[in-house]
Amino acid sequence: MKLIKTKFDHAFLLEPQIYSDHRGFFLESYNKKDLTNLGLDYNFIQDNQSFSIEAGTLRGLHYQLNPMGQTKLIQVLTGAIYDVIVDIRIGSPTFGAWQGFILSSENKRQLLVPLGFAHGFCTIVPNTLVYYKVDNYYSPEHDRGIRWDDPELGIDWPTNQPILSHRDKEHPFLLDADINFFY
After folding, report:
1. CB 94 within 8 A of CB 149
2. Could you tell me the pTM of the whole model?
């Protein structure tokens, strides 16, 4: 597994070793020992899947408050997404900064989203299946979000008219959001 730094401390792209031949390919998408050797010692306890039928489906920006905050390991099994993380750690020199990444079934990259970051993605092709691991259970009472189109963030999404859930349309802007992460 190759570790690729992002502009944020503790957030990384992971690139697996791919073994290809005339039949297709093989890769290890998760190996706890290898990740621990890279300094990424997380105890992932739940796996989730998200399927989006149409390109332009936007999910996010989501996070859970402490003590139920989650680190996520995101990968795309089918299709492609523009995946975005936003630093929401109060006191961080990069508070409110964002970075986007293309994750796809073709590039097979994964994104490690650490605690203290909001996360969202927009599908860029139809029929996209996203698979991710988390290190804490889902907790509805700790579930929060930030508006995808917050002008203070200025995220350059691949669509201006995304397909959104009602919930994602109603999230507050970052400056009004309920946040309890500290740098």
Report:
1. no
2. 0.96
The secondary structure of 1-44, three-state, reads CEEEECCCCCCEEEECCEEEECCEEEECCCCHHHHHHCCCCCCC
Q: Could you tell me which residues come within 8 angstroms of residue 68 by beta carbon, excluding any fewer than 6 positions away?
A: 136, 137, 139, 142
Alpha helices by DSSP H, listed for the chain, are 32-37, 166-169
User: Radius of gyration (Cα) for the chain, nearest Å?
Assistant: 16
CA gap 183, 175 in Å, rounded? 17
Residue 95: how many other CB atoms lie within 10 Å: 16
Total residue length of the chain: 183
Return the active site residues.
62, 132
Dump pLDDT digits (tens) for 71-99. 999 999 999 999 999 999 999 999 999 99
